[in-house]
């Protein structure tokens, strides 16, 4: 059986690896909102209801460290920082769109 290596961890299934990378309550939502255009921290905080400042900061840092987000600091006063998808993050676009489409179908089917 093939094995897959990511960040010094071995996985026996590519789906397991994928879930490990984007796992977390908020990562997919952050990626979804940044997919459309670069976002500032405050925008993300407003868009993602229920996320604390601490968890948003940790999630952004994790996604940046994993190579999915790029943090752009404009070195202005007041501080102006934006987050945008990297090329690796853009590779998740079809996955995020599929999740959106499934959610729309599931929502429609559940209400009927």
Structural notes for this entry:
Residues 13-111 form the HTH hxlR-type domain. The protein has 112 residues and is an alpha+beta fold. The protein has one domain: Winged helix-like DNA-binding domain superfamily/Winged helix DNA-binding domain (Arc Repressor Mutant, subunit A, Orthogonal Bundle), CATH 1.10.10.10. Helix content is 55%, strand content 16%. It is built from six helices and five strands; from the N terminus they run ββααβααββαα. It has helices spanning 14-22, 27-36, 41-47, 53-65, 87-90, 93-111; strands spanning 4-6, 9-11, 39-40, 69-73, 81-85. A three-stranded antiparallel sheet has the order 3-5-4. Strands 1-2 form a two-stranded antiparallel sheet. The longest helix is centred in the C-terminal third of the chain and has 19 residues, at 93-111. The protein is globular and about 55 Å long. It starts with a strand and ends with a helix.
Protein topology:
Layout lengths: L3 E3 L2 E3 L2 H9 L4 H10 L2 E2 H7 L5 H13 L3 E5 L7 E5 L1 H4 L2 H19 L1
Antiparallel strand pairs: 1-2, 3-5, 4-5
Organism: Exiguobacterium sp. (strain ATCC BAA-1283 / AT1b)
Keywords: DNA-binding, Transcription, Transcription regulation
InterPro entries: HTH_HxlR (IPR002577), WH-like_DNA-bd_sf (IPR036388), WH_DNA-bd_sf (IPR036390)
């Amino acid at each position: 059986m093939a094995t897959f290596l990511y960040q010094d961890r071995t996985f026996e299934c590519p789906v397991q690896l994928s879930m490990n990378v984007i796992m977390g309550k908020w990562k997919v939502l952050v990626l979804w909102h940044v997919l459309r255009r670069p976002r500032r921290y405050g925008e993300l905080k407003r868009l993602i209801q229920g996320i604390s400042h601490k968890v948003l900061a940790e999630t952004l840092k994790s996604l940046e460290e994993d190579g999915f987000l790029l943090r752009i600091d404009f070195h202005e006063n007041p501080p102006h920082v934006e987050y945008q998808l990297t090329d690796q993050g853009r590779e998740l676009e079809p996955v995020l769109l599929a999740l959106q489409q499934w959610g729309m179908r599931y929502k429609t089917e559940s209400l009927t």
